[in-house]
Each structure stands twice: as structure tokens, then as C-alpha cells.
Amino acid sequence: AKEQYHEFVIRETTVKRLCKSHNIMTVNGQFPGPTLEINEGDSLIINLINRGRYNMTLHWHGVRQMRTGWSDGPEYVTQCPVRPGQSYRYRFTVAAQEGTLWWHAHSSWLRATVYGALLIRPRDGTSYPFDVQPTRELAPILLGEWWDMNPVDVVRAATRTGAAPNISDALTVNAQPGDLYSCSSHDTALFPVTSGETNLLRFINAALNTELFVSLAGHNMTVVAADASYTRPYTTSLLLLAPGQTTDVLVTFDQPPGRYYLAAHAYASAQGVPFDNTTTTAIFDYGAANNASSTAIAMPTLPAYNDTAAATAFTTSLRGLRKAELPSRVDESLFLTVGVGLFNCTNTTAQQCGGPNGTRFAASINNVSFVLPSSTSILQAHHHGAPGGVFTADFPANPPVQFDYTAQNVSRALWQPVAGTKVYKLKYGSAVQVVLQGTNIFAGENHPIHLHGYDFYILAEGLGNFDAGADTGKFNVEDPPMRNTVGVPVNGWAVIRFVADNPGVWLMHCHLDVHITWGLAMAFLVDDGVGELQSLEAPPPDLPLC
Ligand code: C2O
Predict the structure, then answer these.
(1) Distances (CA, A) of 464 to 207, 250, 367, 405, 520
(2) Which of 29, 269, 351, 357 is most buried when burial is the number of CB atoms within 10 A of its CB?
């Protein structure tokens, strides 16, 4: 195994998008940011040097960070932010994970422009567990979202008013909106391909708030990995990626030479919620030798934005490649409702109550709307044995009331969250099952729930209210897919399992940034059973202070 050192310098860079120039935050002036390429088992040292205008942290999305929780990155959870002018070294090893992960800013909405791919190839001397080895890999495909307004100002305005933030102005492939947007066709992402080859394509959904359907005109895709875990090969013309998720596919370029669009647009099944109904495109080009550039570009057909059947068909087709290593016991069983609600505004000033009917938007897990601390991080407070005033360890394992979670028009009195910084304590080594139940208190929609520090098995998912009696029998305990982000279906549920074998403080949250802003988050505190986090590495000397 090798070790790589990289400097990631945060700085302001000027780019042109949608007919205008903008100053954005970047890593090393690149947008998307640099691609990290490693082999399984390698270690990375990333020196974050903040020459930007904002506090910054970086998160290595999906990296397990075994005992290196100080390098996980969510601000005020595992570290204080790196202030302008300061630096911090992230150090970690990527082991027992292969495929595609990514990295992104984990502070405010800065990940809109501060993100990049992390490619994990098999160790030297080993190969992919595919029937056909790809001839080559194409450049990673990062799906994103572009705002004309500074994304930090977008979220600040929403927080000030209590209203919903602006939706983005474009979806993007490799930071380019593509042919269908104004002033964008010249820079449309282009992937040259060779007739007859089978290539490996890696997709990352780095969009802030949009789950995406993806299709490539004229070509099927065979899914071989998701979230850096191999899957049983599944051939399809349609992919669905929730924000945070990655999918690796094999594509054989066996069609008549020409140009083919890769296209992505929103899957947003929420009723009455504004969605970005635009489509981003990239071009797959078999080459000028065939004079293809004079011919029209083939466009794939994408499902309607609210096609839940198409979404469900994709997600329920994924299986792990290998038999699951799943303990049969469950030591900790949690039932967590995830959803958007509203804060009653009686105690706040009117200009902060721009939500529906004079409320503020809020989101919660089990009716607790998560609040980040500001004086230190949760991990630092715990490590120093002084949670007092920073967090409490009383996160509820069940919602405060039970009712029909998926019904519309449930009395709001039943569902106005309380704000708090609460963690749920897990004993080191315990087998944990979590039922994630989506609610429809206010505009039910899919919630991509992401757990830091772990991969989990997705045993089952379904629509409606989870029914322990009937639904437990549907669990796939043989070959469930392993992921770090699960799209909890709109008005439905998903059941996940993991073993709490990584000591530290681990955020779990909706990967729609608008929902984490509203509090759809909680944290697990995993103790190692010897009283202190003795097996977590010591805090690094350059850990920033708040
Ligand atoms: Cu990719 Cu907490 O995030």
C-alpha cells in the first residue's frame, strides 16, 4: 500500500456559466475539483489550505475512516472549521472499499462548487470482479447543480427568512450545464469513445438537492458497483442516483458510430414542491473518423420527474455481489422518522417566518431538529469528557407519537419538532438495525439518508408505513446491497443494518442540503466499550479550534 500527499488550496476562481461570470470557491482553481486516484489499501494525506473567504471543512464521502474520525470533516461534528488563512491535514486509509467515492466541502452550501471524485481501484496484481474486464475507464462523471447566486447567500437568505431556498439554475455534468442551456453548448462535457470497446463509467451525484435519473441514448449500462461496494451485474437503460450516491457501470460501445447524449434530470416525486425540471447533457462521441459530427445527436428518453415506479424498479434491483456478512442478532433497534415539518413562529419575529402560513421550515428525525454546536465539535467535546452544554446523549430510539406517517394533512400540532443537539449512544460492536420511515407531514419526498463512518446493508424498502409484522419477512439477508446513502422512498421506508465497529461521532443526515439546513440530521456516538474512545486515534496537533 502506498501513501499520497496532496495540497488542496481553497481559493476564489472566476468561471463563466449561463452567460455570466461568477467568482466561486474551488480547490486548486479546478471545477469540479481534483480527482483522487488510489488503490484499495492506500493512505491519503490531504493538506487543506484555506485561502478563501469562508470557513471550510472537507468530507471524504463514504470513506469508512476506521478510527480516524478526526479526518471525517463535518463542521462542528468532528472538527471546528478551518478558518480563512488556516490549514488542516486530513489523514486516512481507504481499506476494504473499491469503486467510486467522492469528497466535498461540509460547511454551509460550499459543496456546490467544492467537490471531486475519489477513485479506488483494486490493489496492484488484482483485478475487478467482473466477467468482462473494461478496456479502459472514462473520466469520472460528476452530476451537479449550479446556482447563479452565491450558494452561501442562498442558504443564508433561507435561514434568515424561514422560507424555502431558491432552486438551482442548472443541473450539470462535470460542472457544465450542457447543450440545452443558454450559452453552454460550447463547453458541453464530451466523452470520446471507441467503437467495440467496453468501458468503465463512474457516476457521482454531487447535486445539492436533486435526485437524478440518468440515461445514455442507444446504450444499456451494466451496474457493477454502488457506493464503492460491488453489486451483482444489473443491466438497465436507466440509473437513479440520490445526492451522495455513486454508481459504476460497464458500457459496450456497440452502436452505429455517431454522437449520443448522456442526459440527467430530476426525480422529485414530492407533491407541490418545486423541482428543477431541466435536463443536463454530455456527449458521447464515437469519433470524427465517421464524420459523426454532421449527424444529429441521439437523445435518450427519461422517465417523468415523478415516476416512482421507474425509481423503485431501479433501487429494488440492486443486490450485493457477495453473500452478506450480517450478524443474525440485532442489539439495537431504532425506528426513525425522517421528514420535513414546520416551526411554529409565535416566539420569533415576523420576518423570520417566511414559511407556509407564517411558519418556518424545519426538518427532523424523530421530531428532533438537529442543531450544530458552535463552541466546539461534538467529537472534541466527547473526547475531552465534557459534553455539558455541547450535546446530550438522549436521542430517542422511537418517535414521540405513532400515527399514519404517510397520510397528508396530519395535524401539525402532532409534528412540530423540537430543536436540539442530541446523539444516540451505541455500544462498540453492537449490531444495529434502523427503520427509516419517511413522513408526509409537509410535502413528502425521497430523503437520501447518509451515514458517516459506515457502510450499511439495505435489507428492504417499501411504500407506506413500515409494518414490522408483514415487512420483516421481506428482508433480504442473503445478498443485500451495501451503501453509505439510501434513498428512503417518498411516503415509504427503508431498513438498514450495520455493526458499530468504528468508534467516534458519526453524523447521519439527509443529503439534500436544504434538509440538513432545516435540521434533518442526528449523530451516533460509538464508544469502544473501554470507557473512553481509547481506540480512536489521538486528535491531530493541527486540529482547528473554534
Ligand atoms: Cu456527503 Cu455528511 O455528507
Answers:
(1) 27, 34, 19, 8, 20
(2) 269
